[in-house]
Structures are given as structure tokens and as C-alpha cells.
Amino acid sequence: MSNLTQRVLTAVVGIPALYFIFYLGGVPFLVFILAVIFIGGIEFSRLLWAKGVSSAGGLGLILSLILAVAAYFGYFYLGVFFTISMIAVFILHLRNQELSGSLMEVGTTLFEIVYLGWFLSHAVLLRNIGYNSNVKAYAEAAQGLKDAGFFYIFFVVSCVFLNDTGAYFAGRWMGKRKLIPRISPGKTIEGTIGGIISSIITAEVANLIFKSPLEYYWAFIFGFVIGVVGVLGDLVESMIKRSARVKDSGGILPGHGGILDRFDSLIFAFPAFYYFVIIYYWLYGVQVIEHFFLYRVQLNGYYYYL
How far apart, in whole angstroms, are the C-alpha atoms of residue 182 and residue 178? Predict the structure, then answer.
């Protein structure tokens, strides 16, 4: 069975399941993200072993899972537990009897917490953004959205997945010039551009499916940002794998490799898109994160937080 056939079959089974989980939101979505972090953490540990680097006994994975749960209760709790996690890593490593590998262990543990825990926790924040009373009121009145979080998750995941698909086919058909061959030998400039264009088109289509809750130019901007950030996420994961000298992070998804191979772009896209959505609402006078801004002024009937 060809790689393309495996990709298609995985998508046929996986996309409806993901859509259902995205639609449910709440605890089911949190459990899904926890599963992604857990499997991703196992794959990350295997990459470290392939590199000959010892992990910190699952500490990074445990703290990453705690961060996702904290994010479920709000941005404030995520920030608090993120800070506690950073401090905990340093304190726990003070007990090491063998100091020669301490710096490497601390570095890899902190990287895992940021890469998996902090970044992917923003998926939970994004899915729950519609529970914010200010966003809920504005989304229902001005955007026609009953569940803003579902729209944004659907939006970003669709853009990333179609970005990957567009890059894959554009690279196969037109790819000639390598983007960064030392990191990702198969990625081309033409494929990258094709992927970003696919992301922009997907953003506009997804926006239309939900009856245009975003202005067309905002959908364009979001699609472009997701496309660019998605490429960055892909390259970072490729850098990690090439450093460990492995082709795929795992084999749980036929045709795609491991969880990190499939979610590499989303790991970067979730936090980037979340903060762009906050900026979007801020420009329309909607406060998403309490105390995130210092001053509030009223202009033309809207409140702006500065």
C-alpha cells in the first residue's frame, strides 16, 4: 500500500472522529489533548534515547499533562502552573548525584514542557474561548457564533491540515528549489508557498462555512499566519528528528508516522493563532484575558484595553 493511500485512509477515519471531538469540546476535548501530549511525550523520549540522551524519568511529561489540565480552568492557572513547573524542574534536579548530565537533562525537560505542555495547552484555551462571557456576548451578537471555540479549533486545524496537503502536492508537482535541505531535504520553496496558499484558501472557505463570522481580510490574515507558523512547526520537528537521526517520531498513524509528525505544525499554530484571536477581539473592544491589559478606554462605543 502506497504512502499516499495510507494517508487518505487515515484521513477518512480520523477526520470525522476529530470533528466530533472538536464539536463536543469540554472534557472530551481536554482528554484528547492529554492523549496527544502523552503519546507525543513517549515519542519525544524515544527520540532522546535515539540521540543517546537520558530523560528525566517522565518529569517533563507529567508536568506537561498538568499544564493542559490547568489550561482547562483558564489562562491564569496555566501561567501559574507553568511557572511552578519551571521552578520544580530546577529544584528536583538539585538532587542529582551525577552532575555531568544535569545540564542536558534540565534542558531537555524544559524543552518538553514548553514544546508539548505549554504550546498544546493553548488548544484547550482556544477551544474554551467561547466560555468567556465577553467573547460569548460578542460572538453571538456580532459574529453569529453560538460556539466560538469550536469555530476557531475547526478553523486552525483545517488550515494546518490543508496546508500540509497543499505543500505535499505542490512540492511533488512543482518543487525544485530546496527550502532548508540540511533540516528537511524533501521540503521545497514551491511546496511551502503552495501550502501557505492552501491555508489561505481554506481559511476563507472555513469562514464561509460558518457564515462569515470573520471579515474576509481577517480570514486571509489568519490563514497566512497559520500557514507560515505551520511551516515553522514542521521544520522544528524535522530538526529534532534529524538530530536524533530518525525518519519518523513513531508509527501510530499509518502514512503520517507518529503523533509528533502529524501535530508538529499544530504545536506551533495553536498558541500563535490563540494570541492572534486575542488581538482580533482586543481591536473590537472585547477583553479575553482578565488583567492582560492595563487600561481601558472607550472609543466609538467600543472598549479598548491598552
Answer: 9
